[in-house]
Amino acid sequence: MLAEIILIFLIVVAGTGGELCLTRAMKTIGEVHDFRPMAVLRFFGRAVTVGWFWLALLGMAAGFFALLGMLSLENVSFVIPVTALSYAAGALGGSIFLGERVTPQRWLGVLLVCIGVTLVWKGKG
Amino acid sequence: MTSPAGLHYKTFASILVMVIFGPLGDVLLRKGMRNIGAISDWSPANLAHLFVVVFTSGMIWLGIASLLTFFVAFTLVLSWADYSYVQPASSFAYGLVAVLGRYVLGESITTMRWMGVLIICVGVLIVGHTPPRTTEHR
């Protein structure tokens, strides 16, 4: 049980943290306007010089390996719905870390996700 | 410049790819990890050994390829379609992954879990219908 809680924590927090770092890195670099292969390569060339990008890779890799660990322990119909908790972590992280304004409607969606995850957990059988 | 009908078609095709390959990737990863067996020894030496076992499993690579296909379709569709239009597709994926888990992997799913999955789908759908950008555009 402890291993499962730690793995879910890692999937949600490290995975979402990685995505938030990626968003921050992309906003530091600026919007992509040119989608030609060389321009995209140059864009990634700039991305690897940003520290947030490497933190993002680290977080997302940790999240992926935690997901593999969790899938070795539990059914996919349990693991994937529980990872929807990322929406709660994303809303919290977005508002605190990126200064995004989370609307009441989005909080309602997050609340429903949390209720759903609770039911999935309680219905583990 | 793509015609409206062409745009509609390529958006639908991309979202279909996302909805199929995302859950399929998750199911293939579960199948691969189930074949490897539940992790009981969390020591660094065993995790290093597992790392090798995981990345020599064909099923895991199929899962990764499937998730990469999902990711490419997701990235491409975002280059012409609104995030708020595309994102609700991910709510459908939570339902599909449960259906695939039940009928492809033979997982037993209680009524309470089905209800939970349904509520998660609705919650994700609501999150997807909020403005995709709330910060000042730089």
Helix content of chain A: over 70%
Our Rg estimate of chain A from Cα atoms comes to 17 Å
Order of helices and strands of chain B: HHHHHH
> What are the low-pLDDT stretches of chain A, counting only 5+ consecutive residues below 50?
none
Q: Tell the overall outline of chain A.
A: globular
Number of domains of chain B: 1
Describe this structure in words.
The complex is a heterodimer of chains A (125) and B (138). Chain A is an all-alpha fold. Chain A has one domain. Helices cover 80% and strands 0% of the residues of chain A. Chain A is built from six helices and no strands. Chain B is 73% helix and 0% strand. Chain B contains six helices and no strands. In chain B, α1 packs antiparallel against α3 and α1 runs parallel beside α5. Chain B is globular, with a radius of gyration of 18 Å. Chains A and B meet through α3, α4 and α6 of A and α1, α5 and α6 of B.
Keyphrases for this structure?
heterodimer, A: 125 residues, mainly alpha, 6 helices, globular, B: 138 residues, 73% helix
Q: Which SSEs are present, and which pair or pack?
A:
The complex is a heterodimer of chains A (125) and B (138).
Chain A: H1 2-29, H2 37-47, H3 51-73, H4 76-82, H5 86-97, H6 104-122
Helix pairs in contact in A: 1-3, 1-5
Chain B: H1 4-36, H2 44-54, H3 58-77, H4 83-86, H5 89-103, H6 111-128
Give the gist of this structure.
The complex is a heterodimer of chains A (125) and B (138). Chain A has helices spanning 2-29, 37-47, 51-73, 76-82, 86-97, 104-122.
